[in-house]
């Protein structure tokens, strides 16, 4: 079903949270009856020489709330503990494009963790490294040496470095062209 900007159906809106308060904001908004979604990704965190995987917000400082702004009171969102404000233009909340949050929800588990991201990675793609020594660096996928590993080429200031990381530490940024060679320019007949 396609929703149009002028429809009276509930839409998703971005909510800016207070620093590191995504969980608190989500709990408080849900307690008020709002439907929320806070997509998360697994990040490797190193502490005391041990590496652990923890869920972290995909968009730190932001989450999504679904409401019908023409019928529901949205101003209480701005006064909710953990929330800085709902994203507005000219004092009016701006809905997100239809399908954006729904697509993220399809990729998410019940906990909000985006689990469908690593399966889409292919050779030639550009990915962002999540956690570890190369956290937030972007590299090109050179190979997939094992089902749970990705080899990347990361360009540094003076050289390029090949690194192998866990597949769940790679988030797709830009897909390489998946299309094969196109049809010939001319129809050649003998």
Output the keywords.
190 residues, mainly beta, 5-stranded antiparallel beta sheet, 4-stranded antiparallel beta sheet, 3 helices, 38% strand, elongated, disordered C terminus
Task: Walk me through this protein's architecture.
The structure is a single chain. With 190 residues, the chain is mostly beta strands. The chain is 12% helix and 38% strand. It is built from three helices and 13 strands. The strands form four sheets. Strands 12-11-10-9-13 form a five-stranded antiparallel beta sheet, with no helix packed on it. A four-stranded antiparallel beta sheet has the order 2-5-1-6. Strands 3-4 form a two-stranded antiparallel sheet. A hairpin with a 4-residue loop joins strand 11 and strand 12. The longest helix has 10 residues.
Put the structure in a nutshell.
The chain is built from three helices and 13 strands; from the N terminus they run E-H-E-E-E-E-H-E-E-E-H-E-E-E-E-E. The chain has helices spanning 22-31, 75-78, 100-107, and strands spanning 11-17, 35-37, 40-47, 50-57, 62-67, 83-86, 88-89, 92-93, 126-129, 138-146, 149-155, 160-166, 170-174. Strands 12-11-10-9-13 form a five-stranded antiparallel beta sheet, with no helix packed on it.
Name the helicity range. Answer: 10-25%
- How are helices and strands ordered from N to C? EHEEEEHEEEHEEEEE
Structural class: mainly beta
Total strands: the figure is: 13
Strands side by side in the biggest sheet: 12-11-10-9-13
């Amino acid at each position: 079903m396609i929703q149009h900007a002028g429809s009276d159906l509930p839409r998703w809106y971005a909510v800016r949270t207070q620093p590191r308060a995504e969980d608190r904001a989500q709990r408080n908004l849900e307690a008020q009856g709002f439907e929320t979604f806070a997509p998360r990704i697994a990040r490797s965190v190193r502490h005391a020489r041990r590496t652990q995987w923890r869920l972290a917000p995909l968009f730190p400082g932001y989450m999504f709330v679904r409401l019908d702004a023409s019928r529901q009171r949205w101003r209480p969102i701005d006064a909710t503990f953990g929330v800085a404000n709902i994203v507005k233009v000219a004092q009016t909340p701006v809905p997100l494009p239809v399908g954006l949050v729904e697509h993220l929800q399809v990729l998410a588990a019940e906990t909000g963790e985006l689990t469908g991201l690593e399966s889409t990675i292919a050779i030639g793609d550009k990915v962002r490294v999540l956690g570890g020594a190369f956290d937030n660096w972007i590299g090109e996928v050179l190979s997939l040496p094992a089902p749970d590993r990705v080899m990347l080429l990361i360009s540094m200031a003076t050289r390029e470095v090949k690194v192998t990381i866990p597949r769940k530490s790679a988030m797709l940024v830009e897909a390489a062209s998946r299309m094969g060679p196109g049809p010939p320019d001319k129809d050649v007949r003998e």
